[in-house]
Specification:
The complex is a heterodimer of chains A (110) and B (114). Chain A has 110 residues and is mainly β. Chain A contains no helices and twelve strands. In chain A, strands 2, 5, 6, 10, 11 and 12 form a six-stranded mixed beta sheet that branches. In chain A, strands 3-9-8-7 form a four-stranded antiparallel beta sheet, with no helix packed on it. The N and C termini of chain A lie far apart (41 Å). The radius of gyration of chain B is 13 Å and the shape is globular. In chain B, the strands form two sheets. In chain B, strands 2, 4, 5, 8, 9 and 10 form a six-stranded mixed beta sheet that branches. The chains are: A mainly beta (110), B mainly beta (114). Chains A and B meet through strand 6, strand 10 and strand 11 of A and strand 5 of B.
Chain lengths: 110, 114
Amino acid sequence: AQSVSQHNHHVILSEAASLELGCNYSYGGTVNLFWYVQYPGQHLQLLLKYFSGDPLVKGIKGFEAEFIKSKFSFNLRKPSVQWSDTAEYFCAFLERALTFGSGTRLQVQP
Amino acid sequence: GAGVSQSPSNKVTEKGKDVELRCDPISGHTALYWYRQSLGQGLEFLIYFQGNSAPDKSGLPSDRFSAERTGGSVSTLTIQRTQQEDSAVYLCASSLLASRETQYFGPGTRLLVL
């Protein structure tokens, strides 16, 4: 079965710092990859998704992710984080349903 | 428009009791998913309904768990003889179709088994 690994469990950054959250997946076939975010007290919501085409995917709120097939990676990036980006971030792989990574808790300090 | 709704938002029950959790998907969405989120296990898939097809039950952790979807809309997740390890947030999601469609999540039901 496919698996998704997120290596950073808890990240603390100051505002305006750059962000990169790691995500690796194990599946070698056609990939459907997602990043979801869960703000404190809110629902899971989609940040961005990749199915095919341009490996650099733009999402909401200035987030982007790069699919690198040779590295089985789909890392999430943002050039300059804001306090409002404090949340938990989940990478996920879709086959019949979503398989999630363990999540990364991001804390942005003002 | 309305998003995915779930009820109750919180449920406290005693070990051994049965519980029912409800999910109202977004109108017109044919695919419905149940996941649970717990401290020890993270986010796990439980069961998936697509249209009138037989549900994919491969994620259900035991035969105490079951789910049904009536009329292709509302779904109920039932946990029989609850155990303390069933304590978690149970999330429902729906999508317009299955496969590659964005799943929209509800707020979840927080279940505590004493």
